[in-house]
Amino acid sequence: MEHPENSGEYKGLIVNQGIEQPSSVSPYLKRKPKRRKRSVAEFVEGIVKGDVTVLSQAVTLVESVKPEHQIIAQEVIEKCLPYSGNSIRIGISGVPGAGKSTSIDVFGLHVLAKGGKLAVLAIDPSSERSKGSILGDKTRMEKLSVHPKSFIRPSPSAGSLGGVARKTRETIVLCEAAGFDKIFVETVGVGQSETAVHSMVDFFLLIQLAGTGDELQGIKRGIMEMADGIVINKADGDNLDRAKLAASQFRSALHLFPMPDSGWTPQVLTYSGFYNIGVKEVWDMIYNYIDFVKDNGYFEYRRNEQSKYWMYESINEQLRDSFYQDQRIQTLLQEKEQGVLRGNLTSFAAAKDLLDVYFRQLRQ
Ligand code: GDP
């Protein structure tokens, strides 16, 4: 081979022809074509056709905090609105360990046995605080997660509880437009999040456990008042009697509450999600309620009230964001807070000063 070092000058040295090195990139690797951005019309068309991939991508936009995503998301939601509303929306709440995932798995299969499609959404305030979500893991619902007619979406994690809840409500619209006629909204029973879920569902189901005999003490009155049905889970084996006792305690406690606006007296049932006992009765109760409130007009009334609620919530949230994200306000906040803590300024004067600055700025 021709090479300067192969001349007679360099004895004992032969330079061989090298071999071409293979590419370090696998030739079989197909370059993924960059996904073309979908237009609003394409999103809407895909969703209305029931395409779950398009639906998931739209939900991702809804959840995104980027303004350019929000613009598209809002347009998609608006165009999907006429196709939405045709579902029953069930809120399911209970403390961690109450058996929500186990129950939703069997509830889901139960409602799907009649046909239709089910979307399971979640509102999980813990995902915001700890970044770890209690309700985030899809595999918690083993059977449902592989069911072809189900769509499970973990809780959106960005922003305040109000923000998270708003995104879930918007996702409901998209799911309904995609033909999901049953919507479950799951939440951890730890306070505020129930109010948010209650404000977007037709039936609010509270899952309770029989415990130490003083069940009622741990549960906040407000949450009980919200419930359209209370169910005591794990009514199986040794626990059956305690579950029945807990149910009767809840029943008598409910008697003390005024009749809800729906005209429906909340019922208390026992069941076992794990052993699939009493699940049919729970759903018969829910379907009875839906028939009852559809007949007396409360179904429509509640949905209208919810729409109004979300309008005001949305205004409140945007005003709050606009205020707290304002640069001048952010700097001044610290200063005023210190003033209040040192006792130089009352809380009200501090708030007034800050709001004055904010509103003056708006007028400029
Ligand atoms: P979540 O935190 O509310 O979602 O609760 P899980 O569904 O994860 O259930 C918590 C634990 O309770 C798990 O170990 C379940 O197996 C168990 N569990 C759930 N439902 C039942 C039931 O009906 N009976 C019994 N005995 N155990 C149950």
Automatic annotation (TrEMBL):
Q: Which GO terms describe its cellular component?
A: cytoplasm
> For this protein, what is the EC number?
3.6.5.-
**Superkingdom of source:** Bacteria
Q: InterPro entries in the record, alphabetically?
A: GTPase_ArgK (IPR005129), P-loop_NTPase (IPR027417)
Q: Name one Pfam family in it.
A: MeaB
Q: Which GO terms describe its molecular function?
A: GTP binding; GTPase activity
The protein's UniProt keywords, in alphabetical order, are: Hydrolase
Q: Which Gene3D superfamilies match?
A: 1.10.287.130, 1.20.5.170, P-loop containing nucleotide triphosphate hydrolases
Q: Which PANTHER family match?
A: METHYLMALONIC ACIDURIA TYPE A PROTEIN, MITOCHONDRIAL (PTHR23408:SF3), METHYLMALONYL-COA MUTASE (PTHR23408)
Family per record = Belongs to the SIMIBI class G3E GTPase family. ArgK/MeaB subfamily.
* Full protein name: Methylmalonyl Co-A mutase-associated GTPase MeaB
Query: Could you tell me which species this protein originates from?
Result: Bacteroides pyogenes
Q: Which gene encodes it?
A: meaB
